[in-house]
Specification:
Mean pLDDT: 96
Number of strands: 34
Strand content: over 45%
CATH topology of the largest domain: Tachylectin-2, Chain A
CATH superfamily of the largest domain: Glycosyl hydrolase domain, family 43
Distance between the termini: 21 Å
Number of helices: 2
CATH class of the largest domain: Mainly Beta
Structural class: mainly beta
Bound molecules: beta-D-fructofuranose
Shape: globular
Strand order of the largest sheet: 24-34-25-30-31-32
CATH architecture of the largest domain: 5 Propeller
């Protein structure tokens, strides 16, 4: 009895120490140890959310790519499980999807129950005279994702190509078949395939080149998204990763809004229109969850990093983390339909005591905030700008270090400035003032929702119309937070602030 209790206490202490290292995000998923990049196979099944992810079981840089695995009851508290799909016989497991095969179309499910089927890219590196080969493959699980079997007749799709990857697969009820969107990175094309059984794929159509094409296209995701909160009006969003050459340098993501008829995706906009899902530097290869109950808002989650410096970020014993899960919508704007993102509702379960303030005396606000300082929190501000020219939140601040989230009215620009954020010297591409266009709001009201988590900053402006996701590595104890304004004071400032407790402390 005492021995069991002592072991339990030790396990708890170990978990707490493991998730409390410098820079370790407290409510974002990161693996206990080692390297991660893209999220993979996001799926909700039998009351659990599954997060698979590109994982190196052997080290904290890219290599031996396998699917790591974590599960959660609420998208916020994650439990890491053993590696789901390991590299085998020199074939790495690259990015892909997991689907719930409700009606056993694949023949993999047993006992008349639904099973999970993963569709992933098998990557065989170049060896001697044989060039790199990327093909699409299957694996299945009949025990809620705990153990997996790779299909003996893999691959199920092979174009004998070196760059052909990242299948996004979902069930299309209208055409009663599985649809796969998969990238031809160098051609800047997304190919669409259909299959009745996940095994026999026939080509349906192609999309691209369009939008931004300065790097490889990777990680396509096609998702049906409600328009203006309607439960009946929807439009499709095709999201595509671009690396390098994205808006802020290195990797980033663009999207197209349009129609999908079960065969072909048609964009609403001319091919030259380029829309970005996130204006920060650090959101890549986001995926949406399959298997969500019908009528539930789509939820997306990405890798919170950038290939420019992902291998150099100063964290240990892990490298790489995910964004918070985000609910997606489309909003009608004068320029057309635009993606809106908001943190998933479950995040509010981590909120501690709420602090609110409203008024005009910013100094008074800052004095009140001093006592609230911290490094993992949610901050919402609604600022009636009046004649104010610039408003800036200085976060994760101490002495000479701070990170700024600001708005410049004259320039019509939202920005995250991390040039003085602390440890920035590990890559020339890291220190940056990162900007997003945001014209002065017609209402005169600037709304910011900011999530800070030790080394991550996610900004959702104007109810999620502009998202910016950025890393920062502040010195220990850089917990100050203040509002700085330039020009005349804003007419009114309303603030809500919650410390967010650690999702790793149970
Ligand atoms: C994107 C990516 C994918 C690939 C995976 C390999 O970050 O390059 O295209 O499947 O990472 O780890």
């Amino acid at each position: 009895m005492f021995k069991t209790l002592a072991l339990l206490a030790l396990a708890t202490l170990t978990t707490q120490a493991q998730y409390n290292e410098p820079y370790r995000p407290q409510y974002h998923f990161s693996p206990k140890t080692n390297w991660t990049n893209d999220p993979n196979g996001l799926v909700f099944f039998d009351g659990e959310y599954h997060l698979f992810y590109q994982y190196n079981p052997q080290g904290d840089t890219w290599g031996h790519m396998s699917w790591g695995h974590a599960v959660s009851p609420d998208l916020i508290h994650w439990q890491e499980l053993p590696v789901a799909l390991p590299e085998e016989n020199g074939v790495m497991i690259f990015t892909g999807s997991t689907v719930v095969d409700e009606h056993n179309t694949s023949g993999f499910c047993t006992e008349g129950k639904a099973c999970l089927v993963a569709v992933y890219t098998g990557h065989t590196p170049k060896s001697g005279a044989s060039p790199t080969l990327q093909t699409q493959n299957l694996a299945w699980s009949n025990d809620r994702g705990r153990t997996w079997t790779k299909f003996a007749a893999n691959p199920v799709l092979d174009l004998r190509m070196s760059d052909f990857r990242d299948p996004h697969v979902f069930w299309h009820p209208g055409s009663r078949r599985w649809i796969m969107a998969v990238a031809l990175p160098d051609e800047h094309k997304i190919l669409f395939y259909g299959a009745p059984d996940l095994k026999h794929w026939s080509k349906l159509s192609e999309f691209g080149p369009a939008g931004a094409t300065s790097g490889q296209w990777e990680c396509p995701t096609l998702v049906e998204v409600p328009v203006d909160g309607s439960s009946t009006r929807t439009r499709f969003v095709l999201k595509i990763g671009l690396n390098p050459g994205a808006l802020q340098g290195g990797s980033g993501e663009q999207y197209f809004v349009g129609a999908f008829d079960g065969t072909k995706f048609t964009s609403d906009n001319p091919p030259a229109t380029t829309l970005w899902t996130d204006y920060g530097k650090d959101c890549y290869c986001a995926l949406v969850f399959n298997g969500l109950p019908r009528n539930q808002t789509p939820v997306m989650l990405g890798w919170l990093n950038n290939w420019q410096y992902a291998a150099k970020v100063p964290t240990s014993p892990w490298r790489g983390q995910m964004t918070v899960p985000r609910q997606l919508g489309l909003k009608t704007t004068p320029a057309g339909l635009r993606l809106v993102q908001q943190p998933a509702a479950g995040l509010s379960s981590l909120r501690g005591d709420r602090f609110t303030w409203s008024g005009q005396n910013v100094q008074e606000l800052n004095t009140a905030l001093q006592a609230k300082a911290g490094d993992s929190y949610e901050l919402q501000s609604t600022i009636t700008l009046g004649d104010a020219q610039k408003v800036e939140w200085k976060l994760l601040a101490a002495g000479n270090a701070w990170t700024t989230v600001g708005y410049d009215k004259a320039k019509g620009e939202l920005y995250v400035d991390r040039t003085h954020s602390g440890n920035t010297g590990f890559s020339k591409d890291f220190p940056a003032r990162i900007t997003a266009p945001l014209p002065a709001p017609a209402t005169g009201i600037l709304k910011l929702r900011i999530l800070v988590d030790r080394s991550t900053v996610e900004v959702f402006a104007q109810d999620g119309l502009v998202a910016m996701t950025d890393l920062a590595y502040p010195p220990a104890g850089a917990n100050n937070l203040e509002l700085v304004t330039a020009g005349p004071a804003p007419r009114r400032v309303e603030v809500e602030f919650w410390p967010l407790t650690s999702a790793w402390r149970r």
